[in-house]
Amino acid sequence: MSYSIDLSGRVAFVTGASSGLGAQFARTLSRAGAAVVLASRRVEKLKDLRARIEAEGGDAHVLELDVTSIDSIRAAVAHAETEVGSIDILVNNSGVSTTQRIQDVTEEDYDFIFDTNVKGAFFVAQEVGKRMLARARGAAPGTYTGGRIINIASMAGLKVLPQIGAYAMSKAAVVQMTKAMALEWGRFGINVNAICPGYIDTEINHHHWQTEQGQKLVQMLPRKRVGSPEDLDALIVLLASSQSHFINGAVIAADDGFGV
Ligand SMILES: NC(=O)c1ccc[n+]([C@@H]2O[C@H](COP(=O)([O-])OP(=O)(O)OC[C@H]3O[C@@H](n4cnc5c(N)ncnc54)[C@H](OP(=O)(O)O)[C@@H]3O)[C@@H](O)[C@H]2O)c1
């Protein structure tokens, strides 16, 4: 006997699917049976991913999305629902980071991080959430199966680390946003949870692991290793599935024990 999770018939909307964690989340949800909408600014990268997913027999769609623009968010979500179907699963993953001491953070750095990680994530979740709410209330057509919103926060949202103070502040906001949405939307069958990954080797930090400072950081980690995007596969599938109906407002660290 084996345990399996099947997402067939579900539509998953993944922001920041052009690289790193988002690309892997999309591939994994597709392998679990979901139709996936790949959304971000670098459309050529999304098309490459769509080709890889289709080669595996999956159903993938590409949409241009800039989460710093509310118009772009509204257009992309509307387009996804018209072209692919009601969004059942949102992976709210787009994010950016900068590295500098607190005293060196400029207004430009601050806006760059907060416009994407906080304002962008909020309005993407709000736009998708509004549609899930409408379906839950029976006001919109479609068979409602419950919504799943998975916000990608960070271990830095729970534990402050040097030189990424503004990023840590932005991810702490994502943690509280997750709880606020879970509280208001839970009774409509919409589960909102956050994953707080530890260090995972992706475009956002790949260059860092080659530097002396990066190597020193790895030595400080409990198991002296950095993760790879596949390390979150099981968690994303669980949180996207109906089997996670009793998990709402959870902030789940997947950081190899760094936060303890
Ligand atoms: N890697 C880690 O160690 C780690 C740890 C904790 C949390 N995280 C979080 O995980 C998420 C994914 O990061 P990653 O490591 O996979 O980094 P990544 O490879 O740099 O991916 C970031 C993604 O965000 C998208 N993005 C950035 N600005 C955007 C915008 N304005 N509109 C739409 N999409 C935008 C990018 O797509 P386009 O450039 O195509 O728009 C890209 O696909 C982020 O929220 C990050 O903070 C990562």
From TrEMBL:
<dbReference type="InterPro" id="IPR002347">
    <property type="entry name" value="SDR_fam"/>
</dbReference>
<protein>
    <submittedName>
        <fullName>SDR family oxidoreductase</fullName>
    </submittedName>
</protein>
<dbReference type="InterPro" id="IPR036291">
    <property type="entry name" value="NAD(P)-bd_dom_sf"/>
</dbReference>
<dbReference type="GO" id="GO:0030497">
    <property type="term" value="P:fatty acid elongation"/>
</dbReference>
<dbReference type="InterPro" id="IPR057326">
    <property type="entry name" value="KR_dom"/>
</dbReference>
<dbReference type="InterPro" id="IPR020904">
    <property type="entry name" value="Sc_DH/Rdtase_CS"/>
</dbReference>
<feature type="domain" description="Ketoreductase">
    <location>
        <begin position="10"/>
        <end position="158"/>
    </location>
</feature>
<dbReference type="GO" id="GO:0016616">
    <property type="term" value="F:oxidoreductase activity, acting on the CH-OH group of donors, NAD or NADP as acceptor"/>
</dbReference>
<dbReference type="Pfam" id="PF13561">
    <property type="entry name" value="adh_short_C2"/>
</dbReference>
<comment type="similarity">
    <text>Belongs to the short-chain dehydrogenases/reductases (SDR) family.</text>
</comment>
